[in-house]
Amino acid sequence: MKIMQAGLDAPSGCNKQTTSLIAVDDPEVLAKLHRVIDPPVGETAPAAVCVLTQRMNAYRDKCFAVQDYSAAIQNMLLAIVELGYQSCWYEGHITDDDRICDKMAQILNIPDSYELVCYLPVGIAEGDSMQPVKKAFEERAWFNSFPQA
């Protein structure tokens, strides 16, 4: 609940609150989801959060659903680590042309007015987590203007 609440507490464009969540901790439901995720991901995690969105216009006929659910996912990833767990943001893997997300949505009885956009397996890492190599701060962040060449 703490992880999900962190996601729901994220800001959303014009407060439309387009993001919804389904936590899955039933081993039978997790097994059904894992059978449709190809190639497999997060199979050893004892729980997962599925992120749903509703695409609707918020301001001047603009939809902020992607920003809304991205903020929610970031909040949940921070909460997951704070609680001593690990996760990974799987979006493209399930929303690609093979539409794994649609198969997952069917398993979870998600109505057509919602779109499943992300799968966050949640568990304790089997080993030390590896942080990706990041560019130096000075290569990506500046003060007062973009640096002159």
Number of helices: 6
The name of the CATH architecture is 3-Layer(aba) Sandwich
- What would the principal axes of the Cα set say about the shape? globular
- Domain count: 1
Number of strands: 5
Radius of gyration of CA atoms, rounded to a whole number:
17 Å
Low-confidence parts: none
Task: Give the biggest beta sheet.
Answer: 3 strands, antiparallel
CATH fold title? NADH Oxidase
CATH superfamily: NADH Oxidase
Task: Output the structural class.
Answer: alpha+beta
The CATH C-level class name: Alpha Beta
Distance between the termini: 49 Å
Task: Let me know the average pLDDT.
Answer: 95
Helix content: 25-40%
H/E element order: HEHEEEHHHEH
Show the helix and strand layout:
Layout: H1 2-8, E1 19-24, H2 27-36, E2 47-53, E3 57-59, E4 62-63, H3 65-82, H4 92-95, H5 100-107, E5 115-122, H6 137-140
Antiparallel strand pairs: 1-2, 2-5, 3-4
Give an overview in words:
The chain has helices spanning 2-8, 27-36, 65-82, 92-95, 100-107, 137-140; strands at 19-24, 47-53, 57-59, 62-63, 115-122. With 149 residues, the protein is of the alpha+beta class. The chain has a single domain (2-140), classed as 3-Layer(aba) Sandwich (NADH Oxidase). It has a three-stranded antiparallel sheet, sandwiched between helices. It has a two-stranded antiparallel ribbon with strand order 3-4. Helix 1 (2-8) runs antiparallel to helix 3 and helix 2 (27-36) packs antiparallel against helix 5. It starts with a helix and ends in a 9-residue tail after the last helix.
